Amino acid sequence: MTAIKDSHLENQSFWQHDYGHYSPNAALTQNLNADVAIIGGGFTGLNTAWQFKKDNPNARVVVLEGAIIGFGASGRNAGFSTKLFGLEPEMVLLRWGKQKMIDAHHYLKKAVAHTQNLIETHGFQSDYCHTGMVRISYSQQQLDRMKKTYQLLQDLGIDGDLTWQNRDRIRQDFHSERFIGGIYETDTAHLNPCKQVRELKRLAESAGVEIYEASPVTRIERAATAITVATEKGRVVADKVVIATNAYSREVPDSRTLKARQYPLWTYQIVTEPLTAAQWESIGWKDRQSFGDNRQMLHYYRPTVDGRIAMGGGDAIVYKTGALVETPSAMSWKHCEAHLKWIYPQLKDVRIDYRWGGPVSVNVDMVPEISFVDDERIIYAGGCFGHGVALTHLNGRTIADLLNGQKTELTDFWIVNRKSISMPNDTLSFLGGRVARQALKAWDWWEERSLKDI
Ligand SMILES: Cc1cc2nc3c(=O)[nH]c(=O)nc-3n(C[C@H](O)[C@H](O)[C@H](O)COP(=O)(O)OP(=O)(O)OC[C@H]3O[C@@H](n4cnc5c(N)ncnc54)[C@H](O)[C@@H]3O)c2cc1C
């Protein structure tokens, strides 16, 4: 197993390294009036800012990013632009029923198409590859469950882009003896998330959005006439505010009601050194589609444009320290590397060049939400789990509709102003997260107990 030699490589994503030099904007040092102030410069905040400004060219739109653009999940995720929503489809069905599950599928399908369209229309240089994704099973138990899921999606009529792949078919693409079957879905892409979020910054600024970095919001004050959003050295007095802080939302000041909405869950990734042509040849994977496994604690794999493998998952950890404290996990990185080499023993000597982690936003009922906070002038979005890339892009359009006071097909989507179940206090949220993690790990252990060397 490769030891972690360089602590500087920890917790800054490969994408951030790969981006190279980045010049952040200056911090807010003055007092401004704005139509809309947006807290958080990730996919949610920047998409919202751009969409609203496009609709209202004369409006003043200000984004306040606490760190730099690309610091949050948007700059460190795995870059899957996917239709995944919540946890297992069966659980969404059980909790929310058939129609809401179908509606969610259509919203996410639209989200993937919307993201692609945005990238192509505006010439984003974010390494977008629409190569599809395969969901893999390793054990017979996983395969049996996958067959039931496939049947369910067929019964609901939401299997349009899915194809069943048996062992022989899947091994034509992937030279791994661990793969025994799967489902290929065409409607998934992968991209470079750090380039994507900074391309969004470029687009928003070109439309006239003002973006301040290194400007953490320390206070939100609501008055009848306006809302004041204060940072250490300046403030914005706005008619409306969007809280686009995702997994960091528990730490947003003056947001008592937000504290109960979600909890951060940490997930970890690794990236290999660039593989040689012979190594690529040995593992197949010619079409460079992404893949993920049919586990509760999912592992996900994708290639990078410079010939590396990026992968992660297999665990998700709750900490008492919240989202802002960077929390390395040598155990998770070791697990990721072992899993990569379990799938592909051909790569046993491959070096791991990058390791990092980041918080995803999880809520009790396991599906995202976009909600007004106390009154209609403040909008919050969160709970995207590890499936927020495409979702947050479309959510930006949905939130812009809400800011415009318009009722649209998007604002009618049932996650908008749904009644979410409150998170318990910090201790209970933490303990609940730990219990859920153990339960999901036990489920995976049970389904994989017959596998060798895992
Ligand atoms: C390791 C990892 C892998 C993932 N992989 C995938 C994937 O492959 N596919 C997928 O669909 N999803 C994935 N996700 C989830 C996805 O990245 C997120 O759902 C999405 O990026 C959320 O975007 P956002 O803009 O809402 O939040 P973020 O990108 O987290 O942005 C929030 C921003 O708010 C800022 N902020 C916080 N507090 C303040 C404050 N007080 N004042 C000002 N600014 C503040 C933060 O600095 C941050 O930049 C992954 C997430 C992680 C962590």
TrEMBL record:
Residues 35-402 form the FAD dependent oxidoreductase domain. It comes from the Bacteria. The keyword Protein transport does not apply. Keywords: Oxidoreductase. Transmembrane segments: none annotated. It holds the Pfam family DAO. SUPFAM superfamilies: FAD/NAD(P)-binding domain (SSF51905). This is FAD-binding oxidoreductase. The lineage of its organism: Bacteria, Pseudomonadati, Pseudomonadota, Gammaproteobacteria, Pseudomonadales.
